[in-house]
Amino acid sequence: MVRLHAERHLVNRIGWLRAAVLGANDGIISTASLMVGVAAAASSSSEVLVAGVAGMIAGAMSMAAGEYVSVSSQSDTERADLARERQELAENPKFETNELAQIYVERGLEPALARQVAVQLMAKDALGAHARDELGISEAITARPIQAALTSAATFSVGAALPVIAALAAPRPFLMQAVFATSLAFLALLGALGAKAGGADIIKPTIRVAFWGAFAMALTAGIGALIGKAV
């Protein structure tokens, strides 16, 4: 007897993992960059902290709203496509069967077998078969606006709190350096954790996240220093 083993695939994490990584990454980079830019303009410690806290709150709300709107648009499109497909199945089931069979032929099945598979799948769940194989919509990756919004807002807040805490702990002469260094370390850790959660290689995502975070903070610090001298 052939014994089947359970496989643990990670594709069902795509929805919340993308939102979580995006939120935390944006929280660290945007808040740290804002604080570094304000600090480079020779502002006081209190001004830097106020900028960080304000950026954390505003960013979390922005992330939640942005994720909800964008993912809702995807969800609306999916629902519209499913409604159209449901109508086509009701009006012309023979054509839809042939269409599904042709998809399987293009994937490598013999025409007779492809038609048999299409007929059997449609007998069980016609809309589900067309959603998966014609439209590319599946339960694992379907759009979930509320989940994406809450995940992004929560992880943004956590990410943004890290440079704020670093600024609170650092003496004023080293505030900018402390925020830069700790934020860079947290970004590298985030890249590694995101890659680990997604089952990907750790090195490349870690370097990618850390590099772009350092670039953003350095650029903002330079602009802040120029503006501080100008005003």
What does this structure look like?
This protein has one domain (16-228). The longest helix has 47 residues, at 45-91. It has helices at residues 14-40, 45-91, 93-106, 111-135, 145-169, 175-198, 203-230. Helix 2 packs antiparallel against helix 4 (111-135), helix 3 packs across helix 4 and helix 5 (145-169) runs antiparallel to helix 6 (175-198). The chain contains 7 helices and no strands. The chain has 231 residues and is an all-alpha fold. The chain starts with 13 loop residues before the first helix and ends with a helix. Helices cover 82% and strands 0% of the residues.
- How many domains make up the 3D coordinates? 1
Q: What is the ordering of alpha helices and beta strands?
A: HHHHHHH
> What is the gyration radius calculated from CA atoms?
25 Å
| Beta content | under 5%
Number of helices: 7
> What does the overall shape look like?
elongated
Number of strands: 0
Subcellular location: Endomembrane system
Pfam family, one: VIT1
Membrane topology: Multi-pass membrane protein
Keywords: Membrane, Transmembrane, Transmembrane helix
